[in-house]
Amino acid sequence: xxxxxxxxxxxxxxxxxxxxxxxxxxxxxxxxxxxxxxxxxxxxxxxxxxxxxxxxxxxxxxxxxxxxxxxxxxxxxxxxxxxxxxxxxxxxxxxxxxxxxxxxxxxxxxxxxxxxxxxxxxxxxxxxxxxxxxxxxxxxxxxxxxxxxxxxxxxxxxxxxxxxxxxxxxxxxxxxxxxxxxxxxxxxxxxxxxxxxxxxxxxxxxxxxxxxxxxxxxxxxxxxxxxxxxxxxxxxxxxxxxxxxxxxxxxxxxxxxxxxxxxxxxxxxxxxxxxxxxxxxxxxxxxxxxxxxxxxxxxxxxxxxxxxxxxxxxxxxxxxxxxxxxxxxxxxxxxxxxxxxxxxxxxxxxxxxxxxxxxxxxxxxxxxxxxxxxxxxxxxxxxxxx
Length: 386
Prior knowledge:
Elements: H1 25-35, H2 38-45, H3 52-59, E1 64-66, E2 81-83, E3 86-88, E4 92-94, H4 108-116, E5 121-124, H5 132-136, E6 141-146, H6 152-164, E7 170-173, H7 183-188, H8 220-228, H9 235-244, E8 249-254, H10 257-265, E9 270-273, H11 287-298, E10 303-307, H12 313-321, E11 326-329, H13 331-363, E12 376-378
Parallel strand pairs: 4-11, 5-6, 6-7, 7-8, 8-9, 9-10, 10-11
Antiparallel strand pairs: 1-12, 2-3
């Protein structure tokens, strides 16, 4: 593994692995671990606290089994559906993640091109390392993820820019009044290398993360959120965002029926069930475990999506059966980006799409509309829950 203090180079590390060597997403993760500086890999891979919730995101899929049906004629499988009223070719999108240029020199541009090649939705982060307008210029089907800083004029400016650049939804992340305790980042003294910064917020420089005498204090990102992010956000601010944004509004980070109902009452268009990839509250439920409760609470009045722990087509299928209209993936996209730029991102999405097609054939579902709760059952010995 490369030294955690080693500076990032302008050129990517040569990709010595052959495409046929990577037959699963875990192979991309393995190779990304070797290619990236430890500080960067840990930033992408790590979770909050003891990383219990991070692990639960994966374990939750083991709590459900599939109930296949046969002799229904599955020669043709159609993955197409709609999301926020717009057709999409398959129900898998790119979740918002930060700082893509830490993984590849082209950063979010390469991610966007990989998603565009398959028609996948990409949610672009506020803390992208490429300006949102440049990502939009690729032509990718795009949503914009919003962090609201103390200076609300910054959010209003980002919303205006995103709308002008053709973003078709606004995704407000609600679970970050303060960043969770990401101990890997603190240990590694997470910092951005020269030339990489907050491309969408050039007036908001990253803190220098230094203590008197020049010693590194901890994670620059945590310092930034502590200094600039608005921890006072409330349901009143959802009404404010709806008033200033002409785009459909999705709330990302909802985990309970109570908040789901409040979101529906606030008139939001979508909910993304998420625990921030296990990076915020350690001890929060796995996203898949929270999904049925949220979906039942809004009863199709609000479109429900999820992210967290998806690594296989059967994971996607289980999430759809439990009430998600689509799933979004984060870390696997970053592994693909680190290993092969645009082509690596494309390959990750192809793997998930093709694996979902296979899973639908093997369970006797020909269309997304045929995927319902009857497809899944609790695994023997798993805990109850919704």
